[in-house]
TrEMBL record, chain A:
Keywords of the record: 4Fe-4S, Iron, Iron-sulfur, Lyase, Metal-binding
CDD domains: IPMI (cd01583)
GO molecular function: 3-isopropylmalate dehydratase activity; 4 iron, 4 sulfur cluster binding; metal ion binding
Protein name (record): Aconitase/3-isopropylmalate dehydratase large subunit alpha/beta/alpha domain-containing protein
GO terms for biological process, alphabetical: L-leucine biosynthetic process
Domain called Aconitase/3-isopropylmalate dehydratase large subunit alpha/beta/alpha: residue spans: 50-338, 339-478
Automatic annotation (TrEMBL), chain B:
Gene3D superfamilies named in the record: Aconitase, domain 4
GO cellular component: chloroplast stroma
SUBUNIT field: Heterodimer of the large LEUC/IIL1 subunit and the small LEUD (SSU1, SSU2 or SSU3) subunits.
A GO molecular-function descriptor: 3-isopropylmalate dehydratase activity
InterPro entries per record: Aconitase/3IPM_dehydase_swvl, AconitaseA/IPMdHydase_ssu_swvl, IPMI_Swivel, LeuD, LeuD_type2/HacB/DmdB
The species this protein was found in: Gonium pectorale (Green alga)
CDD domains: IPMI_Swivel
Protein name: 3-isopropylmalate dehydratase
Amino acid sequence: MALHATMNAPCGAGRVARRSVKVSAVAATPTPARTPAATGSVKRAMTMTEKILANHSDNASTKPGDNIWTRVDKLMTHDVCGPGTFGIFQKEFGPNAKVWDNERVVIIPDHYIFTSDARANRNVDILRDMATKYNIKYFYDIKDRSNFKANPDYKGVCHVALAQEGHCKPGEVLFGTDSHTCNAGAFGQFATGVGNTDAGFILGTGKLLIKVPPTMRFVMDGEMPEYLLAKDLILQIIGEISVAGATYKAMEFAGSAIEGMNMDERMTICNMVVEAGGKNGVIAPDQTTFDYVRARTDEAFEPVYSDGSAQYVADYKWDVSKLEPLVAAPHSPDNRKTARECSDVKIDRVYIGSCTGGKTEDFVSAAKLFYRAKRQVKVPTYLVPATQKVWADVYTMPVPGCDGKTAAEIFEEAGCVTPAAPSCAACLGGPRDTFARMNEPEVCVSTTNRNFPGRMGHKEGQIYLASPYTAAASALKGFVCDPREYM
Amino acid sequence: MLLQRCPVLAARPSRRAAVCVQAKVSRSEGEPRVIRGKCFVTRDNIDTDQIIPAEYLTLVPSKPEEYEKLGSYALIGLPDDLYPERYVKEGEMKTEYPVIIGGQNFGCGSSREHAPVSLGAAGAKVCVAESYARIFFRNCIATGELYPCETGVRLCDVLKTGTEVTVDMDKNVLTDHSTGKTYPLQEIGEAGPVIDAGGIFEYARRQGMIKVA
């Protein structure tokens, strides 16, 4: 700023001389309205879920109820929702738009694969076209439906494949077009299911607007009895709080029983969070988690933990040594009963499979019980390994404590149906020719996740959800059966 | 029967472009958010497998003809003994019931967007329930297929399928025309304008939030 002359110069005549004043004031550059700083803010004690979302949204902290834009680390889709998701993406972002990051989209055909349904087959073809067009790095393709092993890229059930392929990492945010995406919370990440429209939005922007959920904590302490599995624990919880007990909430699982579980068992628990209405499930990552992840990916990750003084909206605690094998009786996942009290229920079939109960650990458990019993099943027992890798484990891995026998050998000796090609198969019914679909009104004990009317096909089918031990025991008895009878 | 509803559909076999997509609510600005028609009453925990059984998920909602077909299967998974009246009559593509009444936890189960899409494609305009499962609620808004209205009253115990009702989301009141009784509704709030526009993308475009590539 330069004032070339003073405005008032003294003058003998008593007049104020006014010289021409050339003021060239340079206006200060306009500054945008001040945004609040956070340098001095005291960090809120946060739960794991709140922290992960804060890290992904440029917020120092978040609290339940906040609407935030979160960055997305991975987006997963499959053959049922993928075509629709890409359809929306193309319509809304334009035919020439690119996906936000072609290495962060994982396309996993798994739902309706081994079927002659023309539309189902077409949907896998559509996924292939999309993977090519958008240069998607991870597309687990299948072309030869008559022989799943002839497809080196094909994996199988999406949630198990995500874990096995190293896509699940502590501290990350994962969305999938499938309600059981919450399965990945077992790795200490925020993972939840969304519809095609939300997924289409993520494809274009790599972000999503979500509300931060409050967290309910479930502490499972004590030593797991030999007849109990993770499935019994989650059925206990859902039976306690009901199918809407965790709606819009995060479910955090802790306690010595959880810490003692391997990743397969932890996934079983987080998998069924959605059956309680939950938004996401989380288990604190530890050495078990790190070992599993490191064996599958070199990518960096940053584990996140709940603060000691974090606030929870509910706290539940159980001594697992006092729990019993459970079932969820028809027609709701919260229709909790002990397997024992259903011992008069005659059954027609048993199904062991799905993201919930078709992992390696699930088959190992079932095999152990069959081996101990040394008997034959009384009803058709359908086995569907979730992925190619699980199938390989079933056929090659010796089951601990079973004289070097593989699960496949034990299943054959017990008279089970030969393990089928890996996919979601009959967990959700599917096209009419789906393996093990319930096309008649039968009673089935299943290691799957839902038993609403018509879930596995026939509207009058009766489905009892159970652990692999309980499913195996029931197959041997021909009735719903507590596994202790064979242990 | 099909011909009376939408004359364009009659020509469908020869003209693919003439598919009558009576989708989305698409309310014009200024128009009152009021829906009158027959209601279809359901109970608690109507899950997505009952709304649209998994065998129909091979239909891709973003393809207009398959969108229409999804509508014809809306709520076909409801058990026949509890629901003698079908939501969409056999052989029809559209429903007579633009209003769905629900209890608690409507739409629980899967994240499949086919659920609200099939209801909207069938001609549902609004659901009035005690509470919703979160993914279904979110999908209703994102797709703009139907308004997920909430109420504290157990309307599923009070109303019967076939009753003529008016759902007024400006005054937040549901009127039962068979008795004249009114029942309070919760405000649809921020979700309203998004569904009015026909879903999250259209809403975002109208607000200037996104531009098409």
